[in-house]
Amino acid sequence: MSPSTRSCSWLVLVPLILSILLACTANGDHLKVGYYDNTCPNVQQIVHSVMASRVDADQSMAPAVLRLFFHDCFVDGCDGSVLLDGTPFSGSEKDAKPNANSLRGFDVIDEIKSHVEHACPATVSCADILALASRDAVALLGGPTWEVQLGRRDSRGANRTAAEYGLPAPNSTLAELIGLFRHHGLDARDMAALSGAHTIGTARCHHYRNRAYGYGGEGGAAAIDPAFAERRRQTCQSAYDAPAPFDEQTPMGFDNAYYRDLVARRGLLTSDQALYGGGGPLDNLVEMYSTDGKAFAKDFARAMVKMGKIPPPPQMQVEVRLSCSNINW
């Protein structure tokens, strides 16, 4: 091979190698525990302090913050886009149908960000703050804890269209749920474990109405405990937006009661009960979680770490936002 040929070969290979390296950065492999040890060593203590204070005052803030993290990661990766108000370049994901008038906790993240900016200006991303806050939300209600991998960046835009169609719906079928989670690199076990987040919090009547009145559902998942259905119908009669707990027994305790409810055909949403009743390995997994809370806690923590590594698209412009609701200008 002549020198000129070798030179041309390197010219071809160098961009390829660079693209591979960039792909590794984009796919979440750069995240690591202790990312801010030198630049903002107190960030985790700050997040925990604010979360503990807010959850102590209002326990419902814990499931609200946890839901924010899910809705962030499932739309263009864990990039803090769900926290953005509208920009000249994109609409806000806050206004998408699954989020409008239902997502809460933005003020909690803003409060944490304010304290973090005071301690470590322009250092910690809003996406990382949300990841830490969601871990603490779970732990503060008695759930597992885990080491959060950090190093995310904040997007400079949102994707309202993806938020309209890319999130699990209350009436999603099992096939739809599996496909949606698979799209983000999460398998059926991840899906079953992450669904256990519904062991805390509430849903509104218009989300569980179809289930309570016997509309929709598929196979064994269509079955519902009659007494449970009657209670939910009575709740719905009080108001269209009337809330009901996902877990009646321990609605603000992060435990495995959600799975016991599924086995008893008391899943609140059609998409909850879809996890159980169709036979097969998923039924076996739900039954195991219903009797083994430690197994659920372990799988949930592992799946949260995995979900937290869902990357934004490679072409997305990112930064460390100074305000979680606005891009830097």
TrEMBL record:
<keyword id="KW-0873">Pyrrolidone carboxylic acid</keyword>
<feature type="binding site">
    <location>
        <position position="93"/>
    </location>
    <ligand>
        <name>Ca(2+) 1</name>
    </ligand>
</feature>
<keyword id="KW-0560">Oxidoreductase</keyword>
<feature type="binding site">
    <location>
        <position position="168"/>
    </location>
    <ligand>
        <name>substrate</name>
    </ligand>
</feature>
<dbReference type="GO" id="GO:0004601">
    <property type="term" value="F:peroxidase activity"/>
</dbReference>
<keyword id="KW-0479">Metal-binding</keyword>
<dbReference type="GO" id="GO:0005576">
    <property type="term" value="C:extracellular region"/>
</dbReference>
<dbReference type="GO" id="GO:0046872">
    <property type="term" value="F:metal ion binding"/>
</dbReference>
<protein>
    <recommendedName>
        <fullName>Peroxidase</fullName>
        <ecNumber>1.11.1.7</ecNumber>
    </recommendedName>
</protein>
<keyword id="KW-1015">Disulfide bond</keyword>
<feature type="binding site">
    <location>
        <position position="75"/>
    </location>
    <ligand>
        <name>Ca(2+) 1</name>
    </ligand>
</feature>
<keyword id="KW-0575">Peroxidase</keyword>
<dbReference type="GO" id="GO:0140825">
    <property type="term" value="F:lactoperoxidase activity"/>
</dbReference>
<feature type="signal peptide">
    <location>
        <begin position="1"/>
        <end position="28"/>
    </location>
</feature>
<feature type="binding site" description="axial binding residue">
    <location>
        <position position="198"/>
    </location>
    <ligand>
        <name>heme b</name>
    </ligand>
</feature>
<dbReference type="InterPro" id="IPR010255">
    <property type="entry name" value="Haem_peroxidase_sf"/>
</dbReference>
<feature type="disulfide bond">
    <location>
        <begin position="205"/>
        <end position="236"/>
    </location>
</feature>
<feature type="binding site">
    <location>
        <position position="255"/>
    </location>
    <ligand>
        <name>Ca(2+) 2</name>
    </ligand>
</feature>
<keyword id="KW-0376">Hydrogen peroxide</keyword>
<dbReference type="GO" id="GO:0009505">
    <property type="term" value="C:plant-type cell wall"/>
</dbReference>
<feature type="binding site">
    <location>
        <position position="247"/>
    </location>
    <ligand>
        <name>Ca(2+) 2</name>
    </ligand>
</feature>
<feature type="binding site">
    <location>
        <position position="250"/>
    </location>
    <ligand>
        <name>Ca(2+) 2</name>
    </ligand>
</feature>
<dbReference type="InterPro" id="IPR002016">
    <property type="entry name" value="Haem_peroxidase"/>
</dbReference>
<feature type="binding site">
    <location>
        <position position="72"/>
    </location>
    <ligand>
        <name>Ca(2+) 1</name>
    </ligand>
</feature>
<dbReference type="InterPro" id="IPR019793">
    <property type="entry name" value="Peroxidases_heam-ligand_BS"/>
</dbReference>
<comment type="similarity">
    <text>Belongs to the peroxidase family. Classical plant (class III) peroxidase subfamily.</text>
</comment>
<comment type="function">
    <text>Removal of H(2)O(2), oxidation of toxic reductants, biosynthesis and degradation of lignin, suberization, auxin catabolism, response to environmental stresses such as wounding, pathogen attack and oxidative stress.</text>
</comment>
<feature type="disulfide bond">
    <location>
        <begin position="40"/>
        <end position="120"/>
    </location>
</feature>
<feature type="domain" description="Plant heme peroxidase family profile">
    <location>
        <begin position="30"/>
        <end position="328"/>
    </location>
</feature>
<comment type="similarity">
    <text>Belongs to the peroxidase family. Ascorbate peroxidase subfamily.</text>
</comment>
<feature type="site" description="Transition state stabilizer">
    <location>
        <position position="67"/>
    </location>
</feature>
<feature type="binding site">
    <location>
        <position position="199"/>
    </location>
    <ligand>
        <name>Ca(2+) 2</name>
    </ligand>
</feature>
<feature type="binding site">
    <location>
        <position position="77"/>
    </location>
    <ligand>
        <name>Ca(2+) 1</name>
    </ligand>
</feature>
<dbReference type="InterPro" id="IPR033905">
    <property type="entry name" value="Secretory_peroxidase"/>
</dbReference>
<feature type="binding site">
    <location>
        <position position="81"/>
    </location>
    <ligand>
        <name>Ca(2+) 1</name>
    </ligand>
</feature>
<dbReference type="InterPro" id="IPR000823">
    <property type="entry name" value="Peroxidase_pln"/>
</dbReference>
<keyword id="KW-0106">Calcium</keyword>
<feature type="disulfide bond">
    <location>
        <begin position="126"/>
        <end position="324"/>
    </location>
</feature>
<dbReference type="Pfam" id="PF00141">
    <property type="entry name" value="peroxidase"/>
</dbReference>
<dbReference type="GO" id="GO:0006979">
    <property type="term" value="P:response to oxidative stress"/>
</dbReference>
<keyword id="KW-0325">Glycoprotein</keyword>
<keyword id="KW-0349">Heme</keyword>
